[in-house]
Amino acid sequence: MADYLAINWEKTGLSGVEAHVSGTAVSVKRSFHIDWPEQLSPAKDPVSAGSWLKNEFARLKISSKNVLISFSRHESTIRLLEIPDVPLEEVPEIVYFQAATKSSIPLGQLLLDFLLLPAREGKPTREVLVASIVKDLHGRAVKTFQSMGMEVVSTGISSISSAEWIAHVTSGNMDAPILIVNQVDHYLEMSLICNRQILFTNSASMTSADRSATEQAMITEINRFLLARSSQLAGQNVERVILVGEQQSQQEIAAKLGERFQCVVEVLDPLTDLKAAAGDFTALEYPGVLAGPMGMLYALAQKKLEAVDFLNPHKAEAKPDRRKLQIGLGVAGVILILLAALWMTQNSVTDLDDQIADRQKIQQDLDELLKRGQPTLESVALIQEWENSNSKTLKVMQELENSLPGTDRIFLSEMAVTRSAGQSLSRLRAIGHAKDDLEVRDLNQQLSHKNYRVHPRRSNSSTVDAAYPVPFEIDAERLPPQVEPQPKAVPAKAN
Fold it and tell me: CA–CA separation, 327 vs 59, rounded Å?
């Protein structure tokens, strides 16, 4: 994978290892311990401390750019809280709310992470291990390495990370209750593990310089720690104690702990990996200081226990936000409906346009046909009007018969009634013979009274009948009936 620099951060200095992590294997290159110069402490100026530390790393030939930081247990605060047995996605919010009620320091000044412990049968609550560290302390450590151009990948707590290292290097059962004891300088770190879960971890100050007094104080602190955690063990006894440190120096206290708890006591030295790898290492008075950094390296290769990480704290699994998807699907559906409606409307409009075009073509054809037949129609109309306006021949003959004085006075040899093309209705032409001229004049006068326009005409015919010596011709047009004017209404006088 890559080269990492894992360190245990303290106010007075730092201890750590440089290693290469590949797959599930951790290959340690070197270990080191560096004390901070009093005038260049990161607590005063992280950037200046980083500049000095960069030179120290160059001297030690440390080239890794990825950093894992393990803070000592006494630099952090750990509380065991009880929360309702709620769904996992609700746990972080409840944990932060509970931590705010228990902490004497505002949460805005802290970094938090938590470990959710297994549910207990019959209990409506869950236990959660809440770890916190002052944000200012954490920030100075991170800023120191960032000022050197290095990247801090993860930050944790030494006692919890040590349990990860032990889970990798020991072959014993991690399901039974295990007590981990690690003395680092003047602090004793104790962790209780059961079912591959860290139940609690604590730190106690060890101020005595006398070895015998220190061992007695260790036993006292361990007894106090186990008594406080007896409820979590639920009547189980510790089956194994693991001492972290140098083999020879831990033999005496290991024997006392075995006698006290009647269990197996195992001593593990973090420097064993370094010596086996024939790397460059620095002799340390308390080699257990490297257990935390080693655990963080092994966790990168293969995590066996849950741990806290202040840079990447536990969070609820984010539920997929489907609102955008739903909105997108809704918008897509609306667009699809609009497109379908537009397509249907366009098709309908196209069909209507085609129908209109067809109707217009038919109309144009009919107009053209009508235009071609217009003269005929006009002629037909004119003929019809003329036909309707002319008098019937029989009627004209009846009127003429009523006007004739009788065959003893006059007779007709020829008669013709024709249609009129002018204002008259019919035209009467006749040739006849009369006894005298008076009879002819009287006939013309009778025709005039019957609304005929008579055209006087002298006959050129000759007669052979001495009884009817006067030949005559009739040429008369029958006029339309005259419309009598309506009398004007006389307005009534106002009284």
Answer: 59
CB of 460 closer than 8 Å to CB of 436: no
How far apart, in whole angstroms, are the C-alpha atoms of residue 493 and residue 305? Answer: 127
The C-alpha atoms of residue 280 and residue 13 are separated, in whole angstroms, by 19
Residue 387 scores a pLDDT above 70: no
Q: Which of 253, 283, 301 is the last residue of a domain?
A: 301
Compute how many other C-beta atoms are within 10 angstroms of the C-beta atom of residue 138.
22
* β-pair partners for 35: 13
The 8-class DSSP code of residue 136 comes to H
**Domain tally, the chain:** 2
What is the DSSP pairing of strand 178-184 with strand 240-244? parallel
Structural domain boundaries enclosing 402: 393-478
**Strand pairing category for 66-71 and 151-157:** parallel
Residue 348 maps to a domain: no
E strands along 196-317, which residues?
197-205, 240-244, 264-268
Compute the CA torsion angle 238, 240, 246, 250 (nearest 10 deg): 60
Q: What does the DSSP 8-state code read for residue 422?
A: S
What is the reported pLDDT for 77? 94
d(CA 118, CA 195): 9
Structure tokens at 194: 């059961």
What confidence tens digit (pLDDT) does each residue in 411-428 have? 788 888 876 655 556 788
Q: Is the pLDDT of residue 495 over 50?
A: no
Residues 6+ apart with CB under 8 A from 245: 182, 183, 267, 269, 286, 287, 288
pTM for this prediction: 0.64
CA distance linking residue 379 with residue 307, whole number of Å: 113
Q: Domain holding 205: CATH number?
A: 3.30.420.380
Amino acid at 413: S
Q: What is the mean pLDDT of the chain?
A: 85
What pLDDT score was predicted for residue 171? Answer: 80
Question: What's the CA gap between 330 and 416, in Å, rounded?
Answer: 95
Please tell me the predicted confidence (pLDDT) of residue 458.
Answer: 76
Strand residue runs (E) in 358-425: 410-419
One-letter identity of residue 218: M
Residue 352 CB: number of other CB atoms within 10 A?
10
Q: What is the CATH number of the domain that holds 455?
A: 3.30.1360.100
